[in-house]
Each structure stands twice: as structure tokens, then as C-alpha cells.
Write a structure and sequence with these properties.
By secondary structure, the protein is of the alpha/beta class. The protein has helices at residues 18-29, 51-56, 67-78, 119-122, 135-149, 154-173, 191-206; strands at 6-12, 34-38, 83-89, 94-102, 107-111, 127-132, 182-185. It has a single domain, classed as 3-Layer(aba) Sandwich (Rossmann fold).
């Protein structure tokens, strides 16, 4: 590509509405003009760990992610080359051997709970967005999602939320909002704020 891509980082707590915002960006710009990388794809490999140990791990802590590989893949896309994005299996708590080749595009979106926390990754963003949604709404959404989509029990979801998700949000995710250029309260439910963001992205990406 002749022009450097416009790179957007979208962060926020679990089930805050990040995916809704990314979907709206894709609708607005056109899927062919957008490359999406999700932080969840970069959970570290845990093949060597027994299932009990994997299930008990803190997946909301910065050490749960392979930041070096994610930055490497972002740099490949920025240079105009496709990147082999990993895939992750939530049922087995491990990365798979399957990769998803993502093609370069004029706009690249990096989405995940901690993408504004990691300094090297954050330094590559042209626009930094934090989705700020109340904890009770986020927990209800997470509970519904994990029961339906990931086959987990209500008890295991509550236990994980109290022991790792909530503490990590308070220690790492919430503090990272200070790096945001734009804060969107209540995520995709805040249509006026989302419309302003989309208009601004169109303007910046076209400049």
C-alpha cells in the first residue's frame, strides 16, 4: 500500500461493547477497507499445562498475552503484508494450530481489553478508544455470553469474575483509560457518541 494504514485501538472491560463498535466501523468503512485484529487471538500457548491449571489461569492479566507476536503482526500489516493471526479455542483454554491470514487494509483496528495498556502496541495507534460501561452491565453480558457461547456454568463464571476478572479490571484495564483519545460511555448503546466517533474516523482515515 502506498499510504500507511490508519490504526485504531479499541479497549475496555470485558463485554463492554468493543465488538459492537468494531462492527459499526466495518459497516461504515466497508469490510474491504478494514483489517481487524483481536487481542484474544494472542493468548499465550498453554498446551503444556493440564486442563485444571488452564481453567484457573488469569486471562485478564497482561502476562496472559503474547504481546511480541501481536506487535510483529501489526507491523506486517502496516508494511502492507498479510499477517498469520492465531486462532484461540475457549473450550480448551489454548491457542490452536490454525491461523487466519488477515490482509492489509487502509484502516486497521486492534480490539481487546488491554490494548491501551501495552506501551509498544499503544504507540502505534493513531486513535485510541476506551469503551466505558458500568460493571453490572458488563457482568450480565459476560454471564450470558459465556453460558451460551462457551458452555460454561454460572458458578464458574461468577468465581472467575470475582477472583481474576474484576481485580484485573481495576488494576490494569480501568487505569489504561487515561491513554484514550476518545471515551465512549456504555459502548454500542451510546448511539450519539458512536456516530461522532464514526464520523471522526471517516475524516481522519481519508486525510
Amino acid at each position: 500500500m502506498a499510504k500507511r494504514p490508519f490504526i485504531i485501538g479499541v479497549a475496555g472491560g470485558t463485554s463492554s461493547g468493543k465488538t459492537t463498535i468494531v462492527e459499526r466501523l466495518a459497516e461504515t468503512l466497508g469490510a474491504e477497507h478494514l483489517a481487524i485484529i483481536k487481542l484474544d487471538a494472542y493468548y499465550i500457548r498453554r498446551t503444556h499445562q493440564p486442563m485444571e491449571e488452564r481453567a484457573a489461569a488469569n486471562y485478564d492479566h497482561p502476562t496472559a498475552f503474547d504481546w511480541e507476536l501481536m506487535v510483529e503482526h501489526l507491523d506486517e500489516l502496516t508494511a502492507g503484508r498479510p499477517a498469520p493471526i492465531p486462532t484461540y479455542n475457549y473450550a480448551i483454554h489454548d491457542r490452536t494450530d490454525i491461523v487466519d491470514w488477515v490482509q492489509p487494509a487502509p484502516v486497521i483496528v486492534i480490539e481487546g481489553i488491554l490494548v491501551l495498556w501495552e506501551p509498544e502496541l499503544r504507540s502505534r495507534f493513531d486513535l485510541k478508544v476506551f469503551v466505558d460501561t458500568p460493571a453490572d452491565l458488563r457482568f450480565i453480558r459476560r454471564l450470558s455470553r459465556d453460558v451460551v457461547e462457551r458452555g460454561r456454568t454460572t458458578e464458574s463464571i461468577i468465581d472467575q469474575y470475582l477472583t481474576t476478572v474484576r481485580p484485573s479490571h481495576e488494576d490494569f484495564i480501568e487505569p489504561s483509560r487515561v491513554h484514550a483519545d476518545v471515551i465512549i460511555p456504555e459502548g454500542g448503546l451510546n448511539r450519539p457518541a458512536l456516530d461522532v466517533l464514526l464520523a471522526r474516523v471517516r475524516e481522519l482515515a481519508a486525510s
